[in-house]
Amino acid sequence: MFVETLARVEHVFRPLMSFLPDNLAVRMFSAGRTFFAERLAATRPADRSVPIASTSSSTIWGKTMNSRLWNAAGMFKKGEGYTVAARQGAGAWVAGTTTSLPRVGNTKAGVTWPVAVYPRTRLASNWLGLPNPGHAAVAARISKLERHPGCLIGASVSADPGMAETEALQGLVDGMNAYDAAGVDYLELNESCPNVPGHHDGPALDDGLIRRLEFVHQHVLAKRRRHLPVVVKFSVDTSVDQLEDLLVLLVTMGFDGVILGNTSIAYPDHRQFVHEREMAHYDYFTSTFGGGLSGAPLSPLSLNIATLAVQIIERLRPANEFNIIRCGGVSSAADLDESREHGIQFHQWYTGYYEAFARYGHDCYRAVVSPR
Ligand SMILES: Cc1cc2nc3c(=O)[nH]c(=O)nc-3n(C[C@H](O)[C@H](O)[C@H](O)COP(=O)(O)O)c2cc1C
């Protein structure tokens, strides 16, 4: 199939990008990523979900999933790609992140939605700025989807960055209600996008966050007419010292889980591991755009913080099912095995998904989700 061949060929030639001038490399990769993602989302591969379902199906919040791995938010921002994810064997699919007003996202230095890859380091940068068509448009699209058994439907939402707080909170709740009416299986509250001013990008526990969680608690969680799980997503950079307080807050307010986590902005920490051939592009991107880092180097961070979260939740013993979802650097069966050894059951992937797609094509879930 065209997209599988394209991904394989691009992956082979990708390391050559480091020989291009920095701005040209970012322009080329950013345009290429958008082109490829649109085509991938529109493909209709043969259904691979059943073999996974028969060996490793699982439940979350009382619903069956074909596997415990699915895409991280930001891959299907407009609500596209459900069928391809389901047929590949994903246990769920998540649209968004969306905001109440549509957003065009970031453009700088002649690049729209800047992205860079450092393939030798297995790292990537992005500074997209939450482009999306808005909660209402994506909810309407989801309401028309033909469901695939074992592939749950989620939506990632955020309060509008830069909007006055009262209006932003109301827009967030209206969006969550629109997704509820569209029949989603769960919601993610994105509290950790580093690519828009005013979003949370590190140590998370501050007054603004507490007010948002409290508002969602009062206006969504406390008024649920059906059990619509809501999880909160923080950065992998979240301070471990704040983790227990954060989790106590989420459990007390009736949230249903946490995703750990979003991209990292700890540029100096990751810089020491960047391959020397890729250092110039890394420095160019982080100094020109900033952005969030994703990919394999996040794996120890997400493992560590998700493991701590599992231990804290075991101690807190919430009355309701509260799930820890690991995200960040997940790319292989070995990552999933390591998680299980630490009591982590659920995973999302983004950068690793594209790596696996380049290697295994539409069999990427079957290659990584081991039959147990
Ligand atoms: C291009 C790109 C766009 C992203 N957009 C979003 C987004 O809209 N919402 C969100 O919560 N996370 C977003 N993320 C973060 C991912 O969901 C994920 O948390 C992060 O990439 C770490 O996982 P990974 O190492 O498997 O890529 C985005 C990541 C990338 C690479």
TL;DR?
It contains 14 helices and 15 strands.
What does it look like?
The chain is of the alpha/beta class and 372 residues long. It has a single domain, classed as Aldolase class I (TIM Barrel, Alpha-Beta Barrel). It has 14 helices and 15 strands. The strands form 4 sheets. An 8-stranded parallel beta sheet has the order 3-15-14-12-11-10-9-4. The chain has a 3-stranded antiparallel beta sheet with strand order 7-8-13. α2 crosses α10, α5 packs parallel to α6 and α8 packs across α11. The longest helix is centred in the first third of the chain and has 21 residues. It starts with a helix and ends with a helix. The mean pLDDT is 92. The site of flavin mononucleotide has 27 residues, from β8, β13 and α13.
> What percentage of amino acids are in beta strands?
15-25%
Instruction: Kindly provide the name of the CATH class.
Output: Alpha Beta
Share of helix, binned: 40-55%
Are any ligands bound, and if so which? flavin mononucleotide
Cα shape: globular
H/E element string? HHHEEEHEEEEEHEHEHEHEHHEHEHEHH
Task: Report the count of strand segments.
Answer: 15
